[in-house]
Amino acid sequence: IVLQLLGQIEWFAFSFPRLHYGFATILCFLLGIGMQHYFELRMRAFSPALGEARLQALQARIRPHFLFNSLNAVLSLIRSEPRRAETALEDLADLFRVLMRDTRDLSTLGDEIALCKQYLAIEQLRLGDRLQVQWDIGDLSPTLLSNAKMPSLLLQPLIENAVHYGVEPSPNPTPIQIKIAKTLDKIEIRVVNHYHRHASLPSGNQMALDNIRQRLSLLYDIEAQLTAEIKGEQFEVDLVFPEK
Fold first, then answer.
1. Which one, 16, 86, 135, 177, has the greatest CB density within 10 A?
2. pLDDT for 106-161, tens place per residue?
3. What is the torsional sign of CA 109, 103, 156, 226?
4. In terms of pTM, does the model score above 0.85?
5. Which residue from 81, 145, 198, 2 is spatially nearest to 89, judged by alpha carbons?
6. What rounded mean pLDDT belongs to the chain?
7. Concatenated DSSP letters of the chain
């Protein structure tokens, strides 16, 4: 079309008297293929850096709110139960250390479980007998727990959500169920907590879940998934990701 329009201009027709439409079309096609290949290579070169930057931004948003509440709980124990306060501070230090970890470093399933148990021990200071945790890790071997890789702070935010939205609104003892299993080459995690229908809490819950979904997408693409649904009086979150 461009050649047809330019051909009507006298100086262009005089300057290129033997310009063939077929040759020009093939030349433009080859130039287009070359430019497309160039931009694809450029995108591949820059996309890892952009993906890592986005992952770091998502990781930076994970700032467990319990850390601030837990400091107050520890302060209240310093005089009455100094040994217990010391243990809680050691757990807090471990959690801070994980928060400062490089997002490119993967943790193990065993380390994440141990970290979550430290977190729950701290929350027990605030919630007392209201926090009831039921762990079910089936027949997972110590070798699997130490070898299965996963992003750091992937399980803890799910449990924190269960504590915040399932246990805190209730004046009575409320259970949280955590089930971890291995199916083929996938690790499956299920966290279940009580659902309070009249509590206005779903927005913050969804923000945390969306953050985890985006992190999974950047790290595993379609190999991992996170689903959440309300089943009767329970809120159930299922997390699936590759073992390695």
1. 177
2. 889 999 999 899 889 888 888 889 999 999 998 888 898 999 988 888 898 899 88
3. negative
4. no
5. 81
6. 81
7. -HHHHHHTSHHHHHH-TT--HHHHHHHHHHHHHHHHHHHHHHHHHHHHHHHHHHHHHHHHT---THHHHHHHHHHHHTTT-HHHHHHHHHHHHHHHHHHTS-TT-EEEHHHHHHHHHHHHHHHHHHHGGGEEEEEE-TT--HHHHHH-EEETTSSHHHHHHHIIIIITT-SS-EEEEEEEEEETTEEEEEEEEE--TTS--HHHHHHHHHHHHHHHHHHHGGG-EEEEEEETTEEEEEEEEE--
First to last CA, the chain: 54
Tokens of 93: 């230090």
The number of residues in the chain equals 244
